[in-house]
Amino acid sequence: MEHPPDAYPARLVIDYPESRDRLSVLLRIPFAIPIAIISYLMPVAPLLAVSLAVEGYIDDSGSGWFAAAFFLPLILMLLFRRKYPRWWFDFLLNLSRFQYRVAAYISLLTDQYPSTDDEQSVHLELDYPDAEQLNQFFPVVKWLLLIPHYIALVILGVLAFLATIVAWFSIVITGRHPKPLFDFAVGVGRYWLRVEAYGFLLITDRYPPFRLDA
Question: How is 15-55 classified by DSSP, letter by letter?
């Protein structure tokens, strides 16, 4: 996917659907429950395995050790080794893509049932960072620097939820998702992705812009 040289290292584009499946939208909540559970469990399952291993419910020779290694704090790796493991980045990239497909489906931005593998209509890109170019001490304070964004995201999240309710009625009645509401919801998702990339995925030191557009 082409993008300008100064584009933010985290990008999200969702294709606008011209026609909608009214039945799918009408029953979106029960349809989404199974895939939403999977989306939740994918990042949580390794942590559960560690907990079970600590409690003695499973031995520590298999998944427990793997999960413990998998979730060693990335912050420590950046602080002391100036390294961002490629395997960790690839996992976060694919997990983010899957979770945003699920979020797009729940938010009525697509009628395609979320695939665990295929990109579908949700296009998410993250740029692999050069750890040598990242400030090794920044990860410790990034969450604090994002406080203004947290406030903005709470407000935008409420507005996006209300926009989704209006869109639900519009799709069920007319078969169309109002384009301004669609663009707004995608913009909020794009905004959140940038905040994630800066403060949690730690792939960039470039402060997220206060905007919803690409």
Answer: PPPSS--HHHHHTHHHHHHHHHHHHHHHHHHHHHHHHHHHH
